[in-house]
Amino acid sequence: MLDSRPTDDGLWVPQPGEPAPRRLCTDCGLSRTDRAGDCGRACQFIRPDYPAMEAQVHGRPRDPAKGDERFFGPYSAMYRAALKSPRAGAQWTGLTTRLAERLLETGAVDAVLTVIPDPSDRWKPVPAIITDPAAMAQARGMRMGYAPLLSLLEPARAAGHRRIAVVGIPCQVYALRAIETQLGFDAITVIGTPCSDNTTTENFHLFLSRLTDRPDAVTYLEFRADYHVEMRFDDGTRREIPFLRLPIADLPPDFFPLTCRTCVDYTNSLADITVGYMAGEGEQWLIVRNERGRALLDSLGDEVHLSAPGDKGKRAGAVKGFIENTRRAAGGLPLRRMPDFLRGLVGWLQPRTGPRGLEFARTRLEMKAAETVLHLRRSEPRRMRWMIPKHVWDLVAPYGLAPDAGEAPARKDLQRPK
C-alpha cells in the first residue's frame, strides 16, 4: 500500500517515485496495491469479458438491437448536456466535476477518487482522494498521462470511507468493476469519461511543441466534435486547428502505446454515467447507464440543461479512409498525406458535411474498433483471441474486417477466468 500524504484541504495524494508500469499496462494502479495478484483477471487488456461485466454492473449486457447499444454499451438515456452556470477552469462547463461535487455535498459518498494536476506540471495527472466538495475544483480540466488511480482504494478504505465515487477512464473502471465486490465498500459510484489515444505526459509536451512555439503558455487543449482542436493560452488568446492540420503523422511510432491504440471501451461502458464530448456538438455528451447514474443526474436538478443529441452525416467514407491509412501505418508504410492545397478545403467541409452528433460518435467507435484489430494483428496476433470482445468484431464487420483462424475465441473460451 502507498504511504499516505494527508492534507487539511480535503485532499489525499500518494507519494511520488512509484515504479513504472509493465508493458501493455496503462498503470490503473491495481498492481501497486495488495491485490496485484488480481491483475490477470481484472485487466482490460488481458481477457476482458464485457457481457459478464455489463450484466454485473447494469443488470444486463448491451443489446445490439436496442438503439445504439452496439456502439456505446448499455444505457437508459443519452443527452447533450451543459451546466447552466459554467465553472471557471472547467474543460467544458464543469459537469463531470459538479456531479462528483454533488455526491459529496449530499453525503451520498464519503470521498471521491479522481486526479488533480501535479503542482509542477499542469498536464500531469496525480491521483487524489477528495473529501471536501470545495476541493473538487482542483480536479477541473484535462490531464494527459497515466495515473495509478486504483492505488487509492486501500488508503480510502483505511481512512474509513465506506461509500466512494470514482472518476475514471475505461481501463481504470474495468479493473475496478472486476474486483468491486471484494473491496468491502458499502457503495461505489462511477463517473466515467471516454478515453482512447492517451500517452505519457512527456509525449504530450512533445505534441504541444509541434502545435505552437509557446507550448509552456498553453492552458487548455480540447479535441472538439467540429473537427478542430482548440488551444487557449495564459494571455487569454485562443487558436483553433483543423484536425487535418495536426502533425499526427510526424509523431514517433510509439507516441501512443499499443494499449491505447487497441482500447475496446472508448465510451466507458461500465460507468454508472459517462460524460464525454463526441456526440455533444459543442456541449457535452451524457450517457446515463443505470439507476445509480439516473439518480446522480437528477440530483443536479435544474442546474443542467439537457437536450437530445443531434445525428447528421454519413460515416462510411470516413471510416474506410481511416482503415486504409491505419493498414498502411500498421504495416510500416508511410501514411498518405493530403496535399496542402486540399487541406483547407476539406477542413472547411468536414464540420459542414461530415458526421455530426451521434453519427460522429459512431464514426469514432468504428475507427477505434478497426484500429484495435489492425494493430493487434500486426503486433500481438496471439493476444487477439482474448483481447478483442465480440462487440468490437461486430463494429468492423461492415468494412470487411473479420477474425482469421485463431483470432476469435471459441465459445468454450468465452467463460470468464476465476
Question: How would you explain this protein's 3D organization?
Answer:
The protein is α+β, with helices and mostly antiparallel strands and 418 residues long. The chain has 2 domains: 11-198 and 258-309, no CATH class; 311-418, no CATH class. The chain is 31% helix and 17% strand. The protein has 14 helices and 14 strands. It has helices spanning 39-42, 50-58, 69-72, 95-106, 153-158, 170-179, 201-211, 258-261, 291-298, 316-330, 340-353, 358-379, 384-387, 390-396, and strands spanning 11-12, 77-83, 111-118, 121-130, 163-168, 187-192, 218-223, 228-233, 238-242, 273-276, 284-288, 304-307, 311-312, 356-357. The strands form 3 sheets. A 9-stranded mixed β-sheet has the order 1-4-3-5-6-10-11-2-12. Helix 10 packs parallel to helix 12 and helix 12 crosses helix 14 (390-396). The radius of gyration is 21 Å and the shape is globular. It starts with 10 loop residues before the first strand and ends in a 22-residue tail after the last helix. Mean pLDDT is 88; it is low at 1-8 and 16-21.
The gist of it:
The protein is of the alpha+beta class and 418 residues long.
